Amino acid sequence: xxxxxxxGDPDLxxxxxxxxxxxxxxxxxxxxxxxxxxELAAARQRVALLALAAPPAAPSPAVKQxxxxxxxxxxxxxxVPVREMRRFSFLIPALAACTxxxxxxxxxxxxxxxxxxxxxxxxxxxLANAEERSxxxxxTAAETDRLLxxxxxxNVALAQQPGQPAGQAGVLYNQRLGTVLYxxxxxxxxxxxxxxxxxxxxxxxxxxxxxxxxxxxxxAMTAHVSPxxxxxxFAVTIEPQGGMPQPTGPKVLVGVPG
Length: 258
Description:
Blueprint: H1 9-14, H2 20-32, H3 34-53, H4 61-78, H5 82-86, H6 91-148, E1 153-160, E2 167-174, E3 179-186, E4 193-201, E5 207-212, E6 219-224, E7 231-240, E8 251-255
Antiparallel strand pairs: 1-2, 1-8, 2-3, 3-6, 4-5, 4-7, 7-8
Helix pairs in contact: 2-3, 3-6
């Protein structure tokens, strides 16, 4: 029967715990025994995993010097023969496996924590958007009630124009206050374009009331103009992104006061 090295020798050799005649005998045997050479390769992989699992450290020369002085001082009392160490060498693979397991577990927990952190941040953004939207709706409702309670407020329905994106909207306008409240629903504006709301006065050029892209299902906005402007019509046009000083694009919605 072919003889092999002791089961713990590959791990001890990979850890640098074999020396002297035992080291020479082990190296000579491994050169001629493929099975033991494979065991040594596996042991070196386990030791490498142990090294990777530990964080890197660079001790100062003073630390090394104090350590060597301490080893020399305690050599007679704490030195353990290599043969005694070999009694516990069977624990080395198990310790290496445990180290790798806990390293993998730590990585998995970190990824789970990171995923939960991203999920919480996403939900927080959604909540912030919902709160912002809720505040906008509440503000619009309050403004609507205020305008409806003021004498002279008119309600103008804006109708979709032929060949334009589907949508509908309405405008509340109080000429004395110069306050306009728009609420409507349109498809998102084409790429590179914006919707722009206009007040068309009885005299003079149209007045811009604001620009929006209709990313949300419904859009509500409040605008203010100089008090006393008589409105001949209200319109929503498609303009270059950011809006224009005067209407240049097609009319999507148009409404005329009754």
